[in-house]
Amino acid sequence: MLVLRETRMVIGFRSTGTRNDKDDAQGAAANGGGPSRLQSALLVAAVAELVRQKTMSRFESITIREVESSDLETFYEHQLDPEAIRMAAFVCEDPKDKVAFDAHWDKILNSSQITQRTIVAEGQVAGHISCYPHGENIEVTYWLGREFWGRGLATQALNRMLHLVVDRPIFARAATDNIGSIRVLQKCGFKIIGKNKDFANGRGEDTEEYILRLDLDQANE
């Protein structure tokens, strides 16, 4: 599971008394008291950041559909992202092993016990989500490409999956520092019921994870 992040930008001004500052001040005075070159550059940067954040708004069209063979190459590229690997923590031993990847997905797609869907955002393959048996329980997991983080996509995809798979309870796991995924699960009604510690391939060390559960009366609270 992946973390979702919110980016903020803080801009400050501090006078250092350098010659460039004096030149900027003189330029501002000569320009009728208008902004200095430094201030103008910072203003342009701030506007650019606001435009960037605007493009990172929530998607208007989100669907989950059956996995198609053409989706798999995108899934493989997503699992090579070092930051995503570290955040997910509990990943396969070697994400670069394409043979193991193909065998893993062949097993998934030929299993009648696994509900697997591709997450599509405005026509783009954004990731995948799955409900699968783990011992006597059903667990849910998902993976999003990093370019789709922080835009409400995981929450909407999970809600759609929970309407598709109606069995309860459903369990989920997330590293204890994977705040974004924990919030996504909690928004969809999951409650933390315990904690576990195990070796995480994505970090090369023992890592704590929360165990969460969704019961019938908790769905879509």
Describe this structure as you would to a colleague.
The chain has 221 residues and is α+β, with helices and mostly antiparallel strands. It has two domains: 19-55; 62-218, Gcn5-related N-acetyltransferase (GNAT) (Aminopeptidase). It is 35% helix and 26% strand. Strands 1-2-3-4 form a four-stranded antiparallel beta sheet. A three-stranded antiparallel beta sheet has the order 5-7-6, with helices on one face. The longest helix is centred in the first third of the chain and has 19 residues, at 37-55. The two termini are 22 Å apart.
CATH class of the largest domain: Alpha Beta
Major sheet: size, sense and barrel closure? 4 strands, antiparallel
- Strand and helix order: HHEHHHEEEHEHEE
CATH architecture of the largest domain: 3-Layer(aba) Sandwich
Number of extended strands:
7
Shape: globular
Mean pLDDT: 82
Distance between the termini: 22 Å
Number of domains as seen in the coordinates:
2
Instruction: Briefly note the CATH topology name of the largest domain.
Output: Aminopeptidase
Q: So, the CATH homologous superfamily of the largest domain?
A: Gcn5-related N-acetyltransferase (GNAT)
Which percent band covers the strand fraction?
25-35%
